[in-house]
Structures are given as structure tokens and as C-alpha cells.
UniProtKB/TrEMBL annotation:
UniProt record similarity statement: Belongs to the methyl-accepting chemotaxis (MCP) protein family.
Database matches in CDD domains: HAMP
Organism in which the protein naturally occurs: Corallococcus praedator
Organism placement in taxonomy: Bacteria, Pseudomonadati, Myxococcota, Myxococcia, Myxococcales
Annotated ranges, domain Methyl-accepting transducer: 268-504
SUPFAM superfamilies: Methyl-accepting chemotaxis protein (MCP) signaling domain, Sensory domain-like
Domain HAMP residues, every copy: 210-263
Keyword entries, A-Z: Membrane, Transducer, Transmembrane, Transmembrane helix
Designated name of the protein: Methyl-accepting chemotaxis protein
Amino acid sequence: MSGPGKERVFPWNPLSLRFGLAAKLMFISAGVTLLVCMTLMLQASSRLTRTMQNAFAVNGEALALSLASAAEQSVGGNIALLQSAIDSGQTLANVRYIYIEESDGTVVAHTFVPTFPVGIERLNPVALGELSDGKRVKVNPELEFTAYGDAIRAIDVAAPISGGALGTVHVGMDLDAITAEVASLRWALLLWAGVILFLGVLLSYFAYTLMLLRPLRHLAHVTGRIVESNDLAQVVSVTTQDELGQLAGSFSKMVEKLRQFQSSLRGSVGVLKDSASRLDADTSEQSAMINRQAAALQQTRVTIEEISQTSRMASGRAKSILEVAERADEVVRTGEDALQQTLGGLNEIQGVVQQMAQTITQLGERTAQIHDIAETVRQLGAQSNMLAINAAIEAARAGEAGRSFGVVAREIRALADQSMRETHRVTAILSEVGATVAQAVKNSENGALRLQVGLSQVAVSGDKLRELSGILTESTSGVRQIAAAVSQQSLGVDEIFTALKSLDAMMVETTPRVASTQKAASALKDLSVNVSELVSHYNA
């Protein structure tokens, strides 16, 4: 298939050349006649060739058999007689050569000049006893060889002498004579074909002109008058009853139908023109109204979209406030619970602090008791030291006998000194512990006072949080009602906006259709005007 914008290429047609119908018909007739003549000529040439080949073979067979009979009767006779016989046979029409060979292949007589060509006796040999079933000769229908520069084509007929025991007679009938005869016949047939072709073309020209071209030219003349002058009053004459007469009658009926159609078309064109004008006016008004409705709908859509946006913002803010209020309520409740827990914890801490104060007081008393015990131990260490000194003095007085006692005295003195030192350290530590315990007792008393003040403040804060929780509960309920109302309003605005979008889409679809209808109405109006002008051009 040819693509868009490409000219379709058709195969070359010789009849598409600028020739008249008569010339084309004559070309066709001449071609058919020439084809018939060529076919007949080929058939005649082929039949003549077969007939002459059969005749040549029969004549060659008769001559070969007669020479074989003569050779059989003159066995052992004079070879010159055989040569004379075959020379006489060659003078017959269309005989190309004759030769006689013996059973051993020796050629004893021939018509070749000056000598017998070597090797041709093997082209159509006859073996002893080869011929049977009543056959008397062996025929090679087309034997070709060259002798002394001449190309020889012949039908070789081999007739055995005494069944081949005494040799064979070969007679060659000239195939070139058949070729020449067939060529002569072809030239004669071509000459007659040319004469017949000329006469056939001439007769065809007059026959086509009288029987075919004259009615067609009349139809062409009437058609030209209708096309040029738009005159449907032309009369088509019908003079024959053949196919051309039927064509002329059909053409005459067609012209009559066109007259009737033009008469009815005039009235229909007027109605069509009026209807197209009214349709054009109605579509113009409808298009203007659709445009006004589209503009109003567009403004309404913009307003609703702004309301929808405001409603969505309000709904979002209401939801945010509701969430904040709910979180605040939850925080207040959590704080109230935490204050209750804190108050309980502080009461427990107060009890613990009091117990710690009592414990620290008892610890101070125990520390004082330990201090007294440490003082007693110190005094005992001092007395032990004095005793150790006295024991050392007595050991020194005792001399060698009191040496071991002196050692014990020294050890007791060392223990007394160490006991005194440790006692001093314990006393110092107990003094620090006593001061620390006294400070802890004081701090515990101050902490208890502050804890009591904190408990009072926590109780007041719990009361305030309970009041704030009630206020937030009321505020949350109001915010929920506002959020529900805003959500319902937003849903209603969304439904209105969806409906307006549907109307807008319908309006968008309707506007092009109305424009297309208006264009179609305008085109229909123009078409009715054109049809009216076209109908007015024809004369009935």
C-alpha cells in the first residue's frame, strides 16, 4: 500500500498511451491475428518436418533394402557394379550419401569424394541378429558428423545384407533439405500472414468505426454538452439493439432521472437552506448562553473553592485546638495525680525525716557514751603507763634477775602508749561525729519545717489544678462541638464543590460540542448555498 502523501505507482500499460479507441482495438485485433498466424505457422512447420522426416526415412529404407538385395545377389562379384549401383542411388532426390560395409567393418563402396571419412561407420552399427520382431532396417533419425570441412546432417538408414552376415548398406537422407523446405514454407506463411493481417486490420478499422465508434462519439458529444452547458435537455438517440444500444438507452434514462432529481432537488435545497439558517441562528444563541453559563459557573466554582479552603482551614484549626485542649486536660489530670502522689510521698518523707531525727538524736547520745568510755580507756592507759614505768624501775633494781620482767614492762608501756594514742584519735573522731550529728539534727528539724510548708503549698496547687481541670473539661466539650460543626460544614462544601466540578466538566464537554454544532450548522448553511447555486446552473 502506498503511504500518505505518496503517489501510487501503477505498472506500465501500453493501452494507456494517447491512442484513439479505434487504434487500440486495431492493435488488439492485429495482435490476436498475428498470434493465430504464428501458431498456425509453427504447427504447419512442425507437421511438415515430421511428415518429411517420415517420408525420407521410408525412401531411405526402400533404397537401402534394394541395394542390400542387389549386394546379396552379387556376392563375390564385381565391386564396380556395386559402386555403380550406389552412384545411381545417390542421384535420387535428397540422398546425401551411400556406403556399403562388410561384416568386419570394411567399407567396400561409397559415394564420398575423394575417400571415405574414417569413423562414421561406427555411428549407426548393426550387430548380427540385432534386428528382430519384423524390423528390416535400423534408423538413426539425426546423425551429425563432419566430412572434409562440411557439416553433414542426415537420417541414417542401415539395412543388413543377409541378416548382417555379409555386411550392411547405409543410406543417408539429407536433413538440410527438410530444413530448407520448412524455411521456405515459413516464409510463404509469413507473407500470407502479413497480407491477412493488413486486410484484417483494414476491415476491423471500418467495422469499429461504423458499429462502435459512431455511437460512442454520439454519447461523448451529449455528455460534453451536459458538462459544458449544464443542459439536461439533451436527447440521446438509440439506433441499435446491441450492447451499445442498451448503453445509450441506459444513458438516456439516467439523463431523465437527473432531470427529475434536479426538479425535486430545487425544492429540497430551499427547505435545506432555510433550515440551515435557522439552525445556525439557534446554535449561535445557544453558544452565547452556554458561554454565559460557563462564566457564571466558573465564578461560582471559584467562590465555593475559597469557601471550601476556608472551611478546611477552620476545620484544621478546630481539630488542632481540640487536640491541644485534650492534651491540656490530660496534662492537668496527670499533674493532679502527680500532686496527689507527691503529697503522699512528702508525708512519707516527713515521717522518715522525723524517724531520722530521732535516730540521729539517739546516735548523739550513743556518741557521748562512747566518748566517756574512750576517756575511761585513756585514763586506764595512763595508769598502765605509770605501772609500766614503775615496773621498769623495779626491774632495773633487780638487776639480772629482773631483766625478763623489764622486757614485759616495756611491752606493757608500749601498749599503754599505743592505747593512749588510739584513744586520742577515737576521741577526736567522736568529737567530729558529735558535731556532725548535732548539725544533722538541726538540718532535720529545718527540713521538717520546710517539708511542712511544701505540703501546704502542694495541697493548694492540687486545689487549683482541680479547678483548672473542670474548666478544661468544659472547654474541650465546647471545642468538640465546634469541630463537629466545622467538619459537617466542610463536608457540605466539599459536596457542593464536587457537584460544581461535575457541572464544570459537563460544561467543558458541552462547549466544544456546541461549537462543533455551530460549525456544522455554518458548514451546512454554506453547503446549502453551494447546492442551490449548483442546481441553478442546470437547465431542465
